[in-house]
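Quick one:
INPUT:
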C-alpha cells in the first residue's frame, strides 16, 4: 500500500472524527436547559458562564455547527470516493457511495449523538471554549449565508420555543429536585398552572353573599351601607343585582371630603361563569380592571369575582401546604376550641367528649349547614348537642373555620319514667 493511500485513509478517519465532533456538539449543547447549566456551575463556574453565552446566541451556534458538519461531511465523502477509486478502479463509485453513507451515518451521526445524550453535561463543558473560537472564525461565512437567506426569507423572524403543560410541570418538578425552586415556589407555580382548570364560578362570591347599594335608595342609606362593609368594591344596581350599574370604590367614597356616589362608581364589567381563571386574569391585566360581575347562562348576575380572588387561588395551595402542621382541632382554653371546617365529627366527638351528629354530615361544616338548613355565613351560631358552634371564616360558601364551645348538656328529667 502506497504512502498516498495511507495518508488518505488517515485523513478519512480524521474527517469522520470531526463529523462525530460536530454531531455530538449539536446534541450536547442544545439538550441543555437552565437546570443543567445551574448544576454545571457548581463545579465549573467558568464553563457554565461560557455555556450561557453560547446558548444566548442559538442561531450563531447552530449555524457554526451546521457549517462545520457540512464541510466535513462533503470532504469525507469526496475523500472516500478517491480512496475507493484508488483501491478499486473499476468499482470505486459503486463501493464509495454505500460505504461512505454507512460510515457517516454510524460514526458521524448516530453513535456520537447517542453518546452525547448520555454525557451531555460533560461534553458541553469540554466543547464550550472550542465553539467560542469557532463562532468567531466562522463569522464571515455565517454573514454571507445570512445575507443569502435574507433574499428568500425577508419575513423570517425568531420565535421562542414553547413548552407543553406536561413539559412545564416536569421542568418545575426537576427544578425543585435540583434545588432551583424551593417547595413554596413550586407550589405556587402549580397553582398558576391549575388556573386554566378553574372557572370564575368556582372562586366568585355568590350572589346570596353580596352586599350592594341600590341607586334608588336614599343617600343616607347608601352611605350607611358603604361604611358598614369591609370590601374594597361592592355592587351598585337599580332595583336588583340583575340590573347592575357598576362597582363602588368604597375607600375612595368613604375618604372623600364631599362623597359623591356617581364619581366613585366603576362601570360594570361582566364575564361568563365558565371563563377559566388564567383567561380572566389576563383580561383583568389587559383591561386594567380588578373586579367583574359573573353572569349566569341566562344573563343574570351570579356573583362577583376580583383579581384578589384569583391571586388567592394561586396562593391557596402554598398556604395550605405550609399550614399543614396546624392541627385541625386547636384547644384555646378550657371548653373552647378553634376547629377546621373539614374536621371530622368523629375526631371532634373524641376530643370534646360529645356526640355531635347530623343526617348526611360527617364533618363540622356539614353539621353546621344541616342545623341551619342553609349555607352558613360568617358569624352564624348553632347551639346543639352540648356545643355552641360559631362560624369564624367562610370562603366561597365553604366553612373554613369554626369556634366550638362546650356547654352543659340538659339535665335528664328525674321524674321521667315515674308513675
Amino acid at each position: 500500500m502506497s504512502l498516498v493511500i495511507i495518508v488518505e485513509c488517515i485523513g478519512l478517519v480524521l474527517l469522520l472524527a470531526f463529523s462525530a465532533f460536530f454531531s455530538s456538539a449539536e446534541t450536547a449543547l442544545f439538550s441543555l436547559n437552565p437546570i443543567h447549566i445551574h448544576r454545571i456551575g457548581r463545579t465549573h463556574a467558568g464553563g457554565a458562564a461560557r455555556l450561557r453565552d453560547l446558548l444566548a446566541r442559538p442561531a450563531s451556534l447552530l449555524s457554526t455547527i451546521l457549517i462545520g458538519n457540512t464541510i466535513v461531511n462533503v470532504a469525507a465523502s469526496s475523500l472516500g470516493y478517491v480512496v475507493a477509486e484508488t483501491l478499486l478502479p473499476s468499482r470505486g463509485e459503486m463501493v464509495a457511495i454505500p460505504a461512505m453513507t454507512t460510515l457517516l451515518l454510524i460514526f458521524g451521526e448516530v453513535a456520537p449523538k447517542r453518546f452525547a445524550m448520555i454525557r451531555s453535561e460533560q461534553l458541553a463543558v469540554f466543547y464550550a471554549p472550542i465553539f467560542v473560537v469557532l463562532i468567531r472564525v466562522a463569522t464571515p461565512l455565517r454573514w454571507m449565508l445570512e445575507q443569502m437567506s435574507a433574499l428568500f426569507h425577508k419575513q423570517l423572524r425568531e420565535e421562542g420555543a414553547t413548552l407543553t403543560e406536561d413539559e412545564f410541570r416536569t421542568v418545575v418538578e426537576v427544578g425543585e429536585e435540583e434545588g432551583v425552586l424551593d417547595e413554596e415556589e413550586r407550589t405556587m407555580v402549580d397553582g398558576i398552572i391549575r388556573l386554566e382548570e378553574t372557572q370564575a364560578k368556582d372562586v366568585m362570591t355568590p350572589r346570596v353573599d353580596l352586599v350592594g347599594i341600590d341607586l334608588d335608595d336614599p343617600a343616607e342609606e347608601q352611605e350607611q351601607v358603604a361604611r358598614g362593609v369591609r370590601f374594597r368594591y361592592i355592587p351598585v344596581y337599580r332595583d336588583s343585582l340583575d340590573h347592575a350599574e357598576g362597582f363602588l370604590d368604597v375607600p375612595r367614597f368613604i375618604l372623600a371630603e364631599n362623597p359623591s356616589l356617581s364619581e366613585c362608581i366603576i362601570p360594570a364589567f361582566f364575564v361568563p361563569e365558565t371563563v377559566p381563571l388564567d383567561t380572566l386574569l389576563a383580561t383583568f391585566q389587559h383591561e386594567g380592571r380588578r373586579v367583574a360581575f359573573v353572569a349566569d347562562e341566562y344573563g343574570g348576575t351570579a356573583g362577583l369575582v376580583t383579581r384578589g380572588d384569583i391571586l388567592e387561588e394561586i396562593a391557596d395551595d402554598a398556604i395550605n401546604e405550609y399550614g399543614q402542621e396546624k392541627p385541625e382541632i386547636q384547644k384555646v382554653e378550657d371548653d373552647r376550641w378553634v376547629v377546621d371546617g373539614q374536621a371530622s365529627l368523629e375526631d371532634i366527638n373524641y376530643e370534646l367528649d360529645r356526640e355531635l351528629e347530623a343526617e348526611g354530615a360527617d364533618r363540622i361544616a356539614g353539621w353546621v349547614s344541616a342545623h341551619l338548613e342553609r349555607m352558613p355565613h360568617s358569624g352564624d351560631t348553632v347551639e346543639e348537642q352540648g356545643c355552641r358552634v360559631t362560624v369564624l371564616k367562610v370562603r366561597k360558601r365553604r366553612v373554613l373555620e369554626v369556634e366550638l364551645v362546650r356547654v352543659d348538656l340538659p339535665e335528664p328529667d328525674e321524674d321521667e319514667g315515674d308513675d
